[in-house]
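queue> pop job 88
queue> type: inverse folding (structure -> sequence)
queue> payload:
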């Protein structure tokens, strides 16, 4: 796992954040499956699919070009924005891998908002900080935790990395 603080130039980051957090940005509701002690619980979360199945699925694909340039992928699998609204108490998704049987693929998360809903790994918690980029293997088990203080907005990337690494 690698963590990059201040991943983007501040002006680039603010442009992306202001667009995604703007009142006219289209979010799509999805059931959000959570683990609880009684079994399963559902709350709503929101997403916006930017790229999937070798196609840009959103007019906002170009907005993310500065990030894609820095990631420098050989190929993209998926780019998805996630929005989790504050809940009265933290709720957790199940542990999962983003891409099963893909040892050489990577997942990366760029946190757009600072909040108190971490991303949990089996042995580590990452607290969301604005403009922080976290990269790890797609096969690494992780889960989302809902915030209690404010919206948790992040961009999730799944990709095959370049042997040259990030263009930082």
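queue> result:
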């Amino acid at each position: 796992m690698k963590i990059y603080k201040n991943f983007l130039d501040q002006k680039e980051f603010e442009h992306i954040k202001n667009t995604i957090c703007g009142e006219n940005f289209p979010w799509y509701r999805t059931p959000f499956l959570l683990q609880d002690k009684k079994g399963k619980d559902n709350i709503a979360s929101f997403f916006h699919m930017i790229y999937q199945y070798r196609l840009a699925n959103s007019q906002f694909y170009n907005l993310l070009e500065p990030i894609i340039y820095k990631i420098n992928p050989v190929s993209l699998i998926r780019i998805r924005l996630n929005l989790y609204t504050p809940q009265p108490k933290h709720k957790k998704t199940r542990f999962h891998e983003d891409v099963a049987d893909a040892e050489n693929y990577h997942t990366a998360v760029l946190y757009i908002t600072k909040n108190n809903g971490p991303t949990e790994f089996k042995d580590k918690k990452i607290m969301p900080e604005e403009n922080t980029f976290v990269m790890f293997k797609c096969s690494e088990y992780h889960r989302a935790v809902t915030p209690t203080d404010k919206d948790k907005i992040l961009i999730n990337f799944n990709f095959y990395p370049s042997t040259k690494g990030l263009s930082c």
